[in-house]
Amino acid sequence: MERLMDALDVKKVAPDSLGPADIVTKAETIAVGKTKMTSLRTFLAALLAGAFIAFGGTYFCVFLGDTTLPFGVQRVVGGICFCLGLVLVLCCGCELFTGNSLMMSAKVSKKITCAQLLKNWGIVWVGNLVGALIAVFLMYMSKVQVMNHGEVAMTMVNVAAGKVALDPVTMFFKGIMCNVFVCLAVWIGFGARTTVDKVIGIILPISAFVALGFEHCVANMSFLPMGLLLNSMGVGAAGAVTLQGVITNLVIVTIGNVVGGSLIALVYRAAYGTMKKD
């Protein structure tokens, strides 16, 4: 069999995932590659990621639009629905702000500069926002919100209202915890050998952060504008979602996400970054 594979020049793929030390090396190599992309390429890749996360968020809201479902079913299955977004990001190749928090490892290793890191984060954050807003427009024009006799629209407003009603401290810590889970999912993706590995590895961490009600700034770039738009059109209680609330949430959650993602990057680098291969 080996001779046949050699004759056919078939590449052998190890079935097991990369080890922690190899993942640290890969994550830092990927970070260096990100800084070498042109600003336009980075922006376009970020735009796609923002839209993809919005697709997952919309899928989540459509599922929650069935108000007859028990709480536990809503949280768990809704979280699995939301996984669509990160599956598309990791498998299709995009730039996601929350995942790029892992670039902090390469910064500490002095493989990239602070200016390169901040430039990437700035372009990606804006690109994610633009992509999310485009997705909101497309979903709104597609009348997704009218599904189930308007219950989906009410769900979208309720989700947004619940997010802007949080106090700042809670927002911040929900942002930290969210990106701990998200970056662990990305970490699994870095170690995966196949597309199936990536998809399976993503499901539990991402569905968990959604079920636990943590805050993801890129997801909120679509949740909150859609909720604001529908609320301004009379869906839900008047003033349940305000522009000030949207801005406050995005700022605080973004900071929390950076802290959570950087924490994962730095702890793994400290634990495995100096290990030598045999």
Briefly summarize what is shown:
This protein has helices at residues 2-7, 20-36, 39-64, 71-92, 104-108, 114-141, 151-164, 168-191, 195-211, 217-232, 243-272. It is mainly alpha-helical and 278 residues long.
Account of the 3D structure:
- This protein has 278 residues and is mainly alpha-helical.
- It has a single domain (18-272), classed as Glycerol uptake facilitator protein.
- Helices cover 74% and strands 0% of the residues.
- It is built from 11 helices and no strands.
- The mean pLDDT is 92.
Task: Give the CA-CA distance, first to last residue.
Answer: 29 Å
Helix amount: over 70%
Summed up, the domain count is 1
Count of DSSP-assigned helices: 11
Beta-strand residue percentage: under 5%
CATH first level: Mainly Alpha
Q: Radius of gyration over alpha carbons?
A: 20 Å
Mean pLDDT: 92
Provide the structure class: mainly alpha
N-to-C SSE series?
HHHHHHHHHHH
Low-confidence region ranges: none
CATH level-3 fold name: Glycerol uptake facilitator protein
Question: Biggest sheet, open or closed, and with what strands and sense?
Answer: none
**CATH architecture field:** Up-down Bundle
Which helices and strands occur, and which strands form pairs?
Layout (H helix, E strand, L loop, with lengths): L1 H6 L12 H17 L2 H26 L6 H22 L11 H5 L5 H28 L9 H14 L3 H24 L3 H17 L5 H16 L10 H30 L6
